[in-house]
Amino acid sequence: MARFQIKHFDDEAALFDTASGDTHVLSALATVLYSICLEAPTATLTDMQARVAARFALAPADIPLADIDDALTHLRRIGLLATP
Amino acid sequence: MKLMQLSPAALRRQLAGSGVWLRTGPFSVRVRSRLPQVAQGLADLYGQFETRSPIEAFADFHVEINPPGLLRRWLRPQVNFSFDGERPFKPLPLDQAYPMLEWGLNWCVAMHAHHYLVIHAGVVEKNGFAAILPAPPGSGKSTLTAALALSGWRLLSDELTLIDRATGLIHPLPRPVSLKNASIPLIQSFAPDAFLTRAVHDTAKGSVAHLRPPRDSVRRQHEPARPGWVIFPKWQAGAATTLTPRSRAETFLYLAQNAFNYSHLGADGFRVGTALIDAVDCYDFTYSRLDEAIARFDRLAEERHVDAA
Fold it and tell me: How is residue B225 annotated by DSSP?
């Protein structure tokens, strides 16, 4: 069985970690970033910014890099992404 | 037979002896007590409930509510709740015997009914769909649950929402509604004909009184309902009645954190909880007037009814 079970709700997602028993909620940004990381594991921060902006129909400048960094930190902290 | 068919003397005698067997929703309970206030509470609030021979019928929970040792009968009298011979709580003052029985019965279900996902929330039904009302203490959850139950909605529970893990349906547990502090006179003035027990003061929750569950809710206590809404009520003085959509993911997380056995159920708790959220609309609800709140809930039920048709 996969370690994580994910259920998408609108733009957000709920996540169950079968290893720890913890439950998390992923914001819309974190949910999109997670899918981008799966599609393009070598994407840089600015690549991600452009892809996120495209998903939300915004300009890249509307997505602060600091927000992306925070969301990636969250995804790593809960174990959904490996720490580089 | 119904409990109301027992005479007061027979009820007291049976309660003090082999106990009184009651069916409450999917559970059966055998209650024993020598205390007259417990007999009175049961007579006042459980008259419409099914009872059977406590010797012949199986009971899920065997509970007892009685004073401790002899000395405590005279010196600041107290009362103990026991479940299968164990005492999960510290004793309380004697005048809190009846509320303690209700709290103890809630604990029995919350700690043992793992064939359900048990969420700490009020729940009412109309037109086949259930509105789940989770909220922190003081938000007016029980007050709104009581008012809806007295206004044409079916009471499923004021405290424990039972989600069937196999079907996703919500099973009723229509026991008395626990009203606290300001909500006691509020419900008395909202529904002067409704029966409430005399308030018990200075409990850990303040003043507490219990509202007798509506007869129709008890009669239909084996009829489950489909989940329709999760609505977070918030009473706010002077506020307009507003219903606003809220994040489904955050709603799921709140329910998971406020379920009694979500952690115990592991991945299946996640499956059941997320399936519930798939089936419902999620809202925040602010109100100050009960009549307006009920009218808004009625509109929701009507809209769902039309959609379902």
Answer: B
Give the model's pLDDT for residue B72: 61
Q: Would an 8 Å CB–CB cutoff place B253 in contact with chain A?
A: yes
Q: Is B268 on the interface with A (CB under 8 A)?
A: no
Domain of residue B66, residue span? 3-112
At residue B136, the pLDDT reads 85
**Residues of chain A positioned with their CB less than 8 A from the CB of B274:** 7, 9, 14
Last residue of a domain, one of B112, B140, B171: B112
- Whether residue B196 sits in one domain with residue B227: yes
Distances from the Cα of B52 to the Cαs of A79, B9, B144, in angstroms? 54, 17, 33
ipTM confidence score: 0.91
Under an 8 A CB cutoff, do A14 and B247 touch?
A: no
**Angle, helices B97-112/B36-45, rounded to nearest 10 degrees:** 70
H-assigned helices in chain A:
28-39, 45-55, 65-77
Confidence at B70, pLDDT banded by 50, 70, 90: low
Q: Which of A16, A27, A78 to mutate to test the interface with B (most CBs of B within 10 A)?
A: A16
Shared-domain flag, residues B192 and B47: no
Give contacts of A24 with chain B, Cβ < 8 Å: 253
CB contact, 8 Å: B27 with chain A?
Answer: no
Chain B 228-247, residues with CB within 8 Å of chain A CB atoms: 247
Q: What is the pLDDT of residues B73-97, one digit of tens each?
A: 666 789 999 999 899 999 999 999 9
Residue of A nearest to B269 (CA): A16
Query: pLDDT, tens digit, for every residue of B212-269?
Result: 999 999 999 999 999 999 999 999 999 999 999 999 999 999 999 999 999 999 999 9
DSSP track, A63-82: S-HHHHHHHHHHHHHTTSS-
Give the burial class of B223: count Cβ atoms within 10 A of its Cβ; 0-12 exposed, 13-18 middle, 19 or more buried: middle
pLDDT per residue over B150-209, tens digit each? 999 999 999 999 999 999 999 999 999 999 999 999 999 999 999 999 999 999 999 999
> What percent of chain B lies above the pLDDT cut of 90?
91
